[in-house]
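Course assignment 3, question 2. Fill in each field.
Student: A.L.
Task: Predict the tertiary structure for the chain below.
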Amino acid sequence: MLVDINARPRRIAVISVHTSPLDQPGTGDAGGLNVYVLETAKRMALRGIEVDIFTRATRSDLPAIVQLAPGISVRHIEAGPFGELRKEDLPSQMCAMTSGMLHVVAHEGREYDLVHSHYWLSGQVGWLTSERWGVPLVHTMHTLAKVKNEALAEGDTPEPRIRIIGEEQVVDASSALVANTVQEAVDLETYYDAPSDRVIVAHPGVDLDTFNPADGRRAARQRLGIRPDAQLLLFVGRIQPLKAPDVLINAAAELLAMDPSMSERLQVVICGGPSGTGLEHPESMEMLASARGVDVDFVPPQTREVLADYYRAADLVVVPSYSESFGLVAIEAQACGTPVIAAAVGGLRTAVAHNVSGILVEGHDPKLWAERIHEFLRCPICPRRLSAGAVRHAAQFTWDHTVDAMLEAYRIARGAALAELRAQAGHA
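Answer field:
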């Protein structure tokens, strides 16, 4: 363990058990967490910190090690059967994941200054590996079961008790916790009794080299084959009840009932793939759109470059989630100059500045969403004003700022771990 707590770590082990930074965000279990792990690893490596990312191998043909970039490697650990496993089934593989990590690291003789785990499953592995290696554990929850269960979509399945217990254990085992927003920090302290001096807020960032206004909406629409005069509402994300794409479809139906003149121009695009409980009824959104008489274009997850064009092409990006620890989609869209209409929940209150970069809506009543969307589309000055505000607001969120805060969390974690060692020595 580092004696100088202010010294920058030389090498860290990052654990992301259930999803790999190599996976395409927007389907399965891949989403903002993937982007977060990848982008922060890149910035860590640029600061001279070596990053090894451990994830579960889902295919037999995956190489044991993938050099993602200079100073960054993704290490695939065999844990359970190859192929995708539901997150609900993964707790049974935590022993295998931990054993595999310990074996690989011991065989190679690698040493780490710190373990940083992402999501509670990874935290369980990080808890054991950090103790074995005698280094601090830093953890980022990304989502909290107790918070999600208080804001469930109708018919959605609550997070199981095993996850709640697991999260409580990880909080207790961590030397420091990284929260995406002040609200998440409060939730950690309120629901999980996390010590306030061990919780550091690190807002996620946005890659402004990729997500920016570029050559504007017209050019983006030409590249995507979208009509210049369309009034485009865009949803981006995993298709599951938590993300609430049904709110957009139902709001679009209400919008057309409210103003039939929009029928010729209104276009709804849903970009993403089924995930979570959405896998149980993968065609439910298509069926809903047909039943409500809404013409929806369903497109699969896109590369970052194409996704940026979809953001630029939209009049409004719709983020109606029931719970979000932050909301990367909202920040990416705003960075491209597109205002966002989002549910006033969790981290979306931070990601979207109400009436500055977008619109926050209380609740999930489709009629209310339709009214707010209609007001925006009919306002002669709102789109331009909020577009300019969106670019300014998103520019505040950079991955370098995220890493600055993470390094502070690492400093706190090393100090807490060192103090614990000294206390143990004093009792010996």
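Instructor remarks: The chain has two domains: 11-205+398-427, 216-394. The mean pLDDT is 92.
Grade: pending
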